[in-house]
Inverse folding.
């Protein structure tokens, strides 16, 4: 754990803020001090885990870690300004302080998939949690096979991590396909929702597919994958919930016999079906 | 540190006069919480007492549940000034308390909450209060009309899981001591206790079990787990439910909460938690407006599944302890017990 007391956030400094879109920023964080107690380092997390970000006076919000644990001395959060806490975060600058609790939740089964091909399908800011896994794969490139990334955004202005989406295809055996919902001036790439890219992976139905994005995107992506012969347990997604505590106490994320914050947020579609959660 | 450690049950007795003396002594040393009757409202609630004469001994159960002494309706988690997290300390307002007069169902509810707050991550706000508390429970003489602890296997008297349990007899109580904490309190005031009564507790337990259970918990569990319940039931309850949350606030095992930062003048800001309820749409609504719980029926079903399936799966005991408080409180005429019976009869 980054924090040694269950509900007390650990002070972290914003080392850098990068504007990704008109409403989304990437924060690079480092803990304010590193005492020799039981608190762990900035890279002690797994792809798919999240933290509770605290801004005193505004509150806390659950945010996925979007960096790779192979990156030492800092970690990154990608935050869209949509609510009270994320609004307060948007006002913070380089050098400002915020609080961190975590890391919480399970993680993507990325370790057990060594040696295999992988598919990542993201919509909008849903690329943030998957970026942690993608970067982890790049950091351990020899351990994984072919990687295919399908990414959809509403408009070209909504694309997050645009420069990385441009750079990733330079990696060996990496396919990246990006699309926007409607045609736009100056856009020469694919047009249509992300499910229109599923043709690109149709012959890979035995490959685990990681799906992250807004609920409607997850709904239709899973439907298309099932139609294209993916097995339920080969579709891996994350459930987003209004978590107040992150430690299985506040009850906000309880659904279908599970606490999303401690049992999830990563679930296979087979598990989600069993929980009777509609996605 | 566990909040309580069980011991092999030790038997004793206490006369009604000596019990009064015991409670008087406890009042002087610790905070004593006990049932007190409000004559104007004609109800009984747990309140701090300074004189045992205030204690009401003739009651079925209290209107509110005793969970508030460990999980308060409002609790400051820490205070802060400025924007830095660096010097924040966790608050701890736990005090030595003795709770007297809890019914078996409420003791079982607290036992369930203990397991809940201990599992995965230990919630020290709750656990520190529990560690400093001793509970003297009083078994119910009879089952009343509103409650159904024999169906949920949580009363009217307990086989284990109590600190000290009293069983009423003529002019005296049979006393059972079931935990380290109970034993410490007993030993401190041993001179007030007498030898075990000629009371066959096993016979009493057997008699209690014979009281007709209002439903078969196992059948209810199976029908919920196997999806045998007609969706119309959830629709019907959802239509009646006014989402006031009262049943959930009164429930001795409900523990949902929300967290808020408050800037309270002059300069002392707090992060606090307050009771929340799964019947409020705000509990699942996310920034941006998406709410994964879309209908009242889903909301209702989630609660029944949580208490009667998930908590049985996780803790081995029902999340409903059969106290019946929710039924007395409902303004929409939703009767939890009747609905459980409907679930039982679904197949």
């Amino acid at each position: 754990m980054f924090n040694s007391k269950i509900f007390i956030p650990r002070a972290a400094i914003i080392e850098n803020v990068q504007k990704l879109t008109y409403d989304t920023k990437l924060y690079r964080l480092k803990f304010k001090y590193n005492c020799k107690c039981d608190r762990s380092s900035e890279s002690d997390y797994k792809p798919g885990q999240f933290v509770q970000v605290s801004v005193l006076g505004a509150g806390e919000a659950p945010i996925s870690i979007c960096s790779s644990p192979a990156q030492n001395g800092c970690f990154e959060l990608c935050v869209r300004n949509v609510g009270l806490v994320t609004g307060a975060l948007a006002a913070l600058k380089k050098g400002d302080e915020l609080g961190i609790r975590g890391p919480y939740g399970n993680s993507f089964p990325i370790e057990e998939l060594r040696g295999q091909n992988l598919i990542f399908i993201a919509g909008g800011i849903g690329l943030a949690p998957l970026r942690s896994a993608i970067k982890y794969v790049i950091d351990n490139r020899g351990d994984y096979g072919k990687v295919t990334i399908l990414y959809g955004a509403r408009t070209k202005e909504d694309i997050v991590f645009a420069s990385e989406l441009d750079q990733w295809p330079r990696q060996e055996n990496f396919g990246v396909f990006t699309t926007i919902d409607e045609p736009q001036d100056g856009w020469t790439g694919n047009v249509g929702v992300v499910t229109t890219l599923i043709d690109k992976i149709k012959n890979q139905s035995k490959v685990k597919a990681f799906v992250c994005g807004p609920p409607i995107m997850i709904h239709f992506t899973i439907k298309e994958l099932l139609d294209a012969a993916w097995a339920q347990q080969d579709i891996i997604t994350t459930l987003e919930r209004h978590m107040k505590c992150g430690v299985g106490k506040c009850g906000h994320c309880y659904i279908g016999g599970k606490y999303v914050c401690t049992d999830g947020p990563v679930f296979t579609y087979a598990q989600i079906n069993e929980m009777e959660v509609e996605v | 540190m566990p909040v309580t450690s069980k011991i092999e049950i030790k038997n004793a007795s206490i006369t009604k006069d000596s019990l009064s003396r015991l409670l008087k002594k406890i009042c002087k040393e610790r905070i004593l919480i006990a049932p007190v009757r409000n004559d104007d409202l004609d109800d009984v609630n747990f309140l701090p007492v300074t004189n045992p004469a205030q204690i009401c001994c003739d009651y079925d159960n209290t209107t509110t549940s005793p969970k508030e002494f460990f999980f308060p309706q409002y609790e400051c988690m820490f205070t802060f000034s400025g924007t830095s997290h660096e010097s924040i300390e966790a608050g701890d307002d736990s005090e030595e308390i003795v709770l007297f007069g809890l019914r078996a169902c409420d003791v079982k509810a607290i036992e369930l909450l203990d397991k809940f707050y201990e599992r995965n991550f230990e919630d020290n706000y709750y656990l520190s209060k529990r560690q400093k508390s001793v509970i003297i429970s009083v078994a119910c003489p009879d089952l009343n009309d509103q409650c159904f602890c024999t169906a949920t296997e949580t009363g009217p008297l307990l086989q284990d899981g109590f600190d000290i349990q009293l069983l009423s007899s003529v002019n005296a109580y049979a006393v059972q001591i079931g935990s380290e904490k109970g034993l410490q309190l007993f030993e401190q005031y041993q001179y007030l206790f007498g030898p075990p009564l000629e009371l066959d507790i096993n016979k009493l337990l057997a008699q209690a079990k014979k009281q007709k259970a209002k439903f078969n918990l196992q059948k209810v569990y199976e029908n919920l787990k196997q999806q045998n319940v007609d969706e119309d039931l959830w629709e019907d309850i959802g239509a009646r439910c006014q989402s006031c949350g009262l049943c959930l606030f009164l429930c001795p095992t409900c523990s949902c909460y929300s967290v808020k930062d408050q800037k309270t003048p002059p300069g002392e800001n707090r992060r606090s938690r307050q009771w929340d309820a799964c019947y409020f749409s705000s509990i699942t609504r996310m920034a941006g407006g998406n709410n994964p719980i879309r209908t009242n029926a889903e909301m209702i079903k989630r609660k029944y599944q949580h208490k009667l399936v998930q908590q049985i799966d996780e803790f081995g005991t029902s999340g409903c302890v059969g106290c019946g408080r929710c039924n007395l409180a409902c303004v929409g005429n939703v009767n939890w017990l009747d609905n459980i019976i409907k679930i039982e009869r679904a197949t």
